[in-house]
Structures are given as C-alpha cells and as structure tokens.
Design a protein that fits this description.
The protein is an all-alpha fold. The protein contains six helices and no strands. 60% of the residues lie in helices and 0% in strands. The chain is globular.
Length: 126
C-alpha cells in the first residue's frame, strides 16, 4: 500500500462532501455579488466545474477547492472591498492554481462556465 504525503493528506478534507457543499454554496453567492468586478470570472467558474467533476482526480479537485475556498473567504490577504486591489490576491491564487492543474480543465468545464455566466459560446464551441 502506498503511503500518502503530507500534501496529499492536507488535501483530503477538501474533497469531503460537507466541505464541498460549503464551498459550493459560498462560491455562487459571492460570484453573484462580484461577477461584474472581476475579469477572471470565466476561469473561476471553469475551475469550479472542474473541481466538482467526479472524473477529475481527487488531488486536483482538492487543489482547486482550496483555491475556490480562498476566493469565498470573507477576509483574506487583501480584503475584497478595497477598490482596485481587492481581488488581486484572489486572481493570483487562481492563476497559480490554473498553472498547476490547467490540463485537467476540459473544454466541457469551460463551456459550462460560459453558459453559467450567460456568455456566448467560444468560437471553438461553435
């Protein structure tokens, strides 16, 4: 039997159904409040769809859920209410996370994100 590393153990609770439900509820509430103020909404929602996709490996789901949890936190490194700077830390966390797991975000996740945000399909989707 393979031993799990500390990093893997740290990610296991984030795939717990209760934690996933908490992130899901908070995610959509916060997204509705701020969607017009963040230029990375489409990537954020695509990451969400990848995180809740059961075919995504658990390790990747944990990483994405950690980034999404950071987004929904009411207080973080730079509070979101600070105009012009509030979402820079959230964008940095998301960009870093996407750099690590981008190969797992499938066209279906991106298409679902565009649909959820009521955006027209991307040219590749048509």
């Amino acid at each position: 039997m393979r031993e799990t590393s500390e990093t893997e153990n740290a990610l296991i609770p984030l795939t717990d159904p209760i934690e996933m439900e908490r992130v899901e509820q908070s995610f959509w509430l916060k997204l509705r409040r701020v969607v017009g103020r963040i230029p990375f909404a489409e990537d954020l929602v695509a990451a969400y769809y990848c995180a809740v996709d059961t075919s995504t490996p658990a390790r990747v789901r944990g990483i994405l859920l950690a980034a999404l949890a950071y987004f929904v936190l009411p207080t973080d490194m730079i509070p979101d209410f600070i105009t012009g700077l509030g979402f820079t830390d959230d964008a940095t966390v998301l960009a870093t996370t996407l750099g690590i797991v981008s190969s797992y975000i499938k066209p279906a996740h991106r298409s679902a994100a565009r649909q959820a945000l009521d955006l027209p399909p991307a040219e590749a989707d048509t």
